[in-house]
What does this fold into?
Amino acid sequence: MRSIVVEAVVPTVPSRADEVETMARSIGYDVVDRLIQHRKSIHHTYTIGPGKLDELKQLTKEKKIEAVLFANRLPGSQVFKIQKVLGGTDIKVIDRNLLILEVFDQRAMTKEAKLQIELAKLKYTFSWGKEFLRLKGILGEQVGWSGPGEYPYADYERGARKRISHVEKELKDVNAKSKTLREHRRERGFPIVALAGYTQSGKTTFFNKVVSEHKDTGLGPFTTLSTYARRVDFQNGADAFSFILIDSIGFIEDMHPTILKAFNTTLGEITDSDLILLFVDISEDEEIVFRKITASNDILKRIAPKVPIVVCINKIDRCSDDQLQEGTKLVSRIFPGVPHVVLSALNGINTEEVLRLGYQHLSSGSAPETLELSTSS
It folds into this structure.
């Protein structure tokens, strides 16, 4: 589907056009152009200004654009107003949050993940039906029995609420089974180690290396949606140590609360863990690393404030010594006193040391020592 990424960039809010383009390409969108406007504030009707919207309309015609992907969040009313200017429903208009849900939808493999995605979509777009009916009334079209009256509003809301209630009930049953499974693991005496971090930080690569599996990697953001758990038997000298290693969904900056809430079950595996291995991709620009670490820290404070952390500074095979040094300082500043280890999950550099630090914490309850390694090793 031929697409264009659009963004209104305002002061103090980082641009997310690169992230949106990466997500879009990962699920098959053919992104052929971008349209970026720097503004003091978001336009109240179209997000971008009317003049820029006219430019967008021209681009959609010239380049045969089928989908317009906004890096901003769009209220339902803006979606339909933008579509009207661009030529109607033949042009698909979605925002960053709906694109995230599209990625989720393509990646979902389990009933739990599919239910979570449906619930997030239903709640995120709940007001859109009402906005659509209202806008059609403004445009003079007949809706329901006699235009945008009480009947279509009430009928839409009743149907949407009924479906949301049904999905929540199904998800509650799945959640109960997941909780029982977690309790069973604890009864067997296995501590739980959860992998966490921003999407594409290397968690699944590490998981594959440690448990000798071949879960998909490199498919773009959110390759992992459903929780995976495997037993790991670690030999630390003369001591044999077993634990459950959990791989789960990656974090993302500024995820809408409705979407984040729908994934509470998956994030619950992190909440209930005994130790979190927080992965950081150190190979990116310092500003991006800072934003992603900060976002990860904020999420962990919300969902697992009391669970101890070891920060895994990953992808040292793709960065310079200076980049590693600055990134490590950044990690120490955001996570003061938290132990960290530098590694390359892809090349297997220091993966054993990550397990050793985890063993040190879980077996003694004390904070493990930090381990650093230069990129020349």
Observations:
- DSSP finds 13 helices and ten strands in the chain.
- The first strand starts at residue 2 and ends at 9.
- Confidence is low (pLDDT under 50) at residues 137-151, 373-377.
